[in-house]
Design brief:
This protein is of the alpha+beta class. The protein has one domain. It is built from one helix and ten strands; from the N terminus they run αββββββββββ. A six-stranded antiparallel β-sheet has the order 5-4-3-2-1-8, covered by helices on one side. Strands 7-6-9-10 form a four-stranded antiparallel β-sheet, covered by helices on one side.
Length: 203
Amino acid sequence: MKPYRLKATGLTLVELLVTLALLAAVIGTVAATFAGGVRVWERLEARGTRDQWVQVALEQLRHDLHNLRAFEPIGFEGSYDEFAFPALVPVDVEGAPSHDEVGRLGYFFDQIHQRLCRSRHSYRTLRGHRVKDACDTVLAEVDRLRVRYGALDPDTNVLTWSESWSSAEIPLAVKIEVGYRDASTQRSASRSLLVLLPAASIS
């Protein structure tokens, strides 16, 4: 009669090492997937925030252009990356409450600091001041600003576009493109705005 032997029920060293290797691979895969998901979420959140800032800047532009008022001493002037027009601007006078006066409101691209700027000067301080002499940052991390000005061709009665404007008359429309870097893809992106100027019909 053969002696009775108990069967070993534990894991051998090789089986234990294989199990640990598989477990490490699974944990590594889960950790990498989680980290990738966090990065994607951060990029989407940054992109959403960036898009919101661009939208706010464009709405500020639209609002200012809609409030444009014809004022003969201050004309509408513009180039491909800068424009200025007559508008009511806030004025702070020492010893008196802040109030609005007729002045010049302008937007321009500050290439050195990569930003979209807004400047304002009252009519009495215009002499000796250029549009680019003051900058309130409207949007940072901008890589381009392209502005075009629309007017009716007198011969064809069709709206035509030009990259500059210097006239006593106000253009019928302004088309603005703001370029910036997309936070999620690190590629160049842009948003456009078309504004019909109500003051053009009364200039």
